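This protein record is not my work; I was only asked to verify it. The record follows directly below this note.
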Amino acid sequence: MASGQERNRHRMKQLLGKPGNGNCADCGAADPEWASYTLGVFVCHSCSGLHRNIAQISKVKSVMLDPWSSSEVEFMDSVGNNAANTKYEQIVPAFYYRPTHKDCTLLRDQWIRAKYERKEFLCVEKQEPYSAGYREGFLWKRGRDNGQYLSRKFILSEREGVLKYFNKNDAREPKAIMKINSLNATFQPAKIGTTHGLQITYLKDNSTRNIFVYHEEGKEMVDWFNAIRAARFHYLQVAFPGASTSELLPKLTRNYIKEGYMEKTGPKHTEGFKKRWFTMDDRRLMYFKDPLDAYARGEVFIGSKENSYVVLPGLPPSTQGNHWQFGITIVTPDRKFLFACETEEDQTDWIAALQTVINRPMLPQEYAVEAYFKHKP
């Protein structure tokens, strides 16, 4: 006969089959194997570690390996992911970023804390830091020329439609004014070298400008991120009055399609290949000498196949000067761009990323960007 322990474990395994329980309650990862027996939710291995950060609220065990009492099993059966999320996610603002299993630890950790520890989605007042339309505070910002991080005052104003920062606390004029209409923010912990590192980009004279910031407090950084998303959401609602929320949400902030090193030739194909850091941001393929440069050395517009843009593996037979063997040729209506990757895997990944963009038909406003690139000196 099966022991009580075995029966309980078998019942826990069955509970994973109930609707909602087959994905992590917090990041959506498939086949969670852990559970919080104080909250009644099933979570993935990664999120279970973050639940341990709020041990006063959430206690976790392995569904398969740890012993389960009958009362714990009953509790898990009475709650489950769907019921718990209905309770803890009652009023999540539309613009608030819901992390997936692919997102950085900071976003997932703060989502879990916001849900269960701070209970931000049960009380609108607790959402003030990112939903008020105005935010002011100090962030550590990387210096453009010396790479040093210095404390800078930032102000986000939805009414003015800008994010600005000041080099001195008492400065009357901001050092930079970033318009909300071209603002993007993406967490880049590996690139910046701090778990709370955020890359903010905006367009200055139609060229991309990067700034890199962080704050010691994870909540502070994620609040800034969601405040930017809120400002972008309200701007887009006005700019595109007929668009649905589901159409606007992907436009609030975006992660880069791909980043990494490739070699490239200079403007003339007779020039040697140089190693550069590349960022594929929507239809802009930018290259930098260093990943943390403020400005790109150059940008290539990637249009659609309908407009004669093509990506090909390999390089023209006459090509010389590349150290890396795995070439990529981008054909645009005006010229060819030649790149080389260090490994075949890199080449495959870059071609797939470029092909995704080329396969997408161009939007009316993207033709104006393409025209700007064509007439650039």
